[in-house]
DNA sequence: TATTGTTATACTCTATAACTATA
DNA sequence: TATAGTTATAGAGTATAACAATA
């Protein structure tokens, strides 16, 4: 499947390169009318998707970063009134991080901008192609992430 | 096209999150048997794709970073014998950065690892789905990058 | 004077280690 | 003693500004 695979990977790399640059994030936040750095946006977007408060450890795991990183950004987000920390009723060591109404609004606006970018890009596509893309992209994400996880576990088994 | 678009974006984000983490890069370089940081790999991979020496400015533009960033990594890659700097015959201010045989070999090995990851992930896919993915991903990369570029130029026209 | 690239510097993102408090 | 989170620190990644040399 050589050449075809190369083209897939190359196209994917192009997308990632563009979407990951600082300039792109600047434009995202400008369009969304928020002043947040990239980790901030990732955290509130995750909380919005989750639909309910989440613990620091869960956020870190979902974003695949270490917890001190989440702690720092949550602290700032709380100072700015975008999230609340509430003691976890089931475990006194833990906190639940909840979006405030302002935080949810900011998250919605950021997500909307990304959606708009994709929607504009896909505007000329046939309905069938859009459906195929959605199906294949989901399958790809699932399969790639699973295989990477397998190899990781295989290479360094937990004691 | 709401829900379907959301699923596409969410799947894409999942992929990017996983593939962008430091751990993933560690595994890439370990599997490839090289000791290079992420910008190093991006640069030699780009030179391999280009198939011929490229100027610092062109590398920076392609990777969408600023040139001092490229300069620093090229300097290190040259010290380690993976690239050469040769004066541009057409422009005495410029250099052409060329892969050495060792550099090309390292680039090939890195790219192979990524290809293997995708190939493993796609192993169970039908030939038709793989072809569709390749086609749609290329189109998506083209359209998203184009639209982002348009908006950028629209927002800040060159004087 | 404009452009190619470099040097110097600083900021953002993320990880590791050491610590506190609860379980 | 193990776990959830925090504080402190350090390293990777990247940008901006000031500069050199050539066009």
Total number of helices of chain A = 7
CATH architecture of the largest domain in chain A: Orthogonal Bundle
Q: Which spans of chain A of ≥5 residues are poorly predicted at pLDDT below 50?
A: 153-159
Strand order, main sheet of chain A: write it out. Answer: 1-2
**CATH fold assignment of the largest domain in chain A:** Arc Repressor Mutant, subunit A
Secondary structure class of chain A reads mainly alpha
Q: Which sequence of SSEs, written as H and E, runs from N to C of chain A?
A: HHHHHEEHH
Q: Indicate the mean pLDDT of chain A.
A: 92
Give the percentage of residues in beta strands of chain A: 5-15%
How many strands of chain A? 2
Query: Between the first and last Cα atoms of chain A, what is the distance in angstroms?
Result: 38 Å
* CATH class value of the largest domain in chain A: Mainly Alpha
For the biggest sheet of chain A, the summary is:
2 strands, antiparallel
Looking at the chains present, what oligomeric state does this protein adopt?
A: homodimer
Q: What is the percent of helical residues of chain A?
A: over 70%
- Integer tally of domains of chain A: 2
Work out the largest interface and the residue count of each chain: A-B, 58 and 58 residues
Shape designation of chain A: globular
């Amino acid at each position: 499947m050589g050449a075809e695979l190369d083209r897939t990977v190359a196209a994917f790399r192009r997308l990632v390169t563009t979407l990951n640059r600082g300039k792109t994030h600047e434009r995202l936040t400008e369009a969304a009318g928020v002043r947040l750095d990239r980790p901030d946006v990732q955290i509130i977007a995750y909380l919005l998707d989750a639909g309910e408060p989440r613990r620091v450890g869960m956020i870190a795991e979902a974003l695949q970063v270490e917890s001190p990183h989440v702690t720092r950004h949550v602290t700032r987000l709380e100072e700015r009134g975008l999230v609340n920390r509430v003691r976890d009723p089931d475990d006194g060591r833990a906190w639940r991080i909840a979006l405030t109404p302002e935080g949810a609004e900011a998250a919605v606006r950021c997500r909307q901008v990304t959606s708009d970018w994709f929607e504009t890009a896909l505007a000329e596509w046939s309905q069938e192609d859009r459906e195929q893309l959605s199906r294949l992209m989901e399958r790809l994400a699932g399969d790639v992430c699973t295989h990477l996880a397998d190899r990781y576990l295989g290479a360094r088994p937990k004691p």
